[in-house]
Structure prediction request, 79 residues.
Amino acid sequence: MSALTKAKGFKKSKSGTYLSMAATAFGAIGVAKRVKKARLEKDTLVLIDATVSAAAIVTGLAILYRELKRLGDDDVLLG
Prediction:
């Protein structure tokens, strides 16, 4: 299997899924800062926006976790 084929399959691998989960979770830091700032400034609209963003992050992590469970043992990078 060529390196290019392995690179294309990275997104569907366990390693790629873990990397996606980490990147998604890293976005939670920015959302948490926005929530804190919105609460201090009593800005309801920004607070609602940050809350919706947080829900999107949680949903994204749940989808990635489900994909990780589906991958099981057939990891394309190990094959």
About this structure: The longest helix spans residues 14-41. The two ends are 9 Å apart (CA to CA). The chain has three helices and no strands.
